[in-house]
Amino acid sequence: MKYLSAACIVALLSLTACSGGTESNSDSEEKTTLTVFAAASLTEVFADVAEEFSAVEPDVDVRFSFAGSSDLVAQISEGAPADVIATADESTMDTLAGDDLLTGEPSVFASNTLTLAVPNGNPENIESSQDLPGTDLVVCAPQVPCGAATQKWAQLNDVGLDPVSEENSVTDVLGKVSAGQADAGIVYVTDMARAGGDVDQVELDGADAVINKYPAATVDASENKDDADAFVNFLQSKEAARLLEGAGFTTAE
């Protein structure tokens, strides 16, 4: 009888363990995965934003896809699954709005301006845009928000650009400068904040006349619209503003 009792106890413990494992799996299955497409310049700060958002919405797991805004828009237009999109300018977002691929009006949550990144020590002694002719300059491609802003800046300031390379994201521009493959690159001020001392900054004269506004919106094809709306709204919160400003952005307020 003692042996049978012990066996029963072991069996009961086993069943309890199995039951506990099943409950844990059930809990994990209830968690919603929210896919956010975001401009490359938001890479670091959005990781912090997601952490703060998860504290408010613990049942939502935020996952990101970072790239140039025009690439993200093209992916969504072709049917790529996404719940939220955040671009680095309003005109790129307007493409999706015009095709009725968004739910509601996009909301601006931050803004950014341009600056010059040069290799450590500034070997070409670049002090302003007047020193750019004759140097190996890297910029974003015109279809990318930072590239469109660069073109607008050049026109407003009557600066002739002759870049050796046009990249599909501002991250790629920064990478070429930090690797010593370019004498200078036109990037966002926020890229300098996240460069970690790999490059030096030179103020870009007249940059304050060109400001990129960052909008976010819920994708119409999303199967998690309530959670997507919650994330878009969270970008307007004081918690998100604190993180964005700490990364060098100017918030919508």
TrEMBL record:
Q: Which UniProt keywords apply?
A: Metal-binding, Signal
Q: Does the keyword Membrane feature in the UniProt annotation?
A: no
Q: Which organism is it from?
A: Brevibacterium picturae
Protein name listed in UniProt: Molybdate ABC transporter substrate-binding protein
Q: Which Pfam families match?
A: SBP_bac_11
Lineage of the native species?
A: Bacteria, Bacillati, Actinomycetota, Actinomycetes, Micrococcales
UniProt family annotation: Belongs to the bacterial solute-binding protein ModA family.
Keyword set includes Signal? yes
The highest taxon in the source lineage is: Bacteria
Signal peptide segment: 1-19
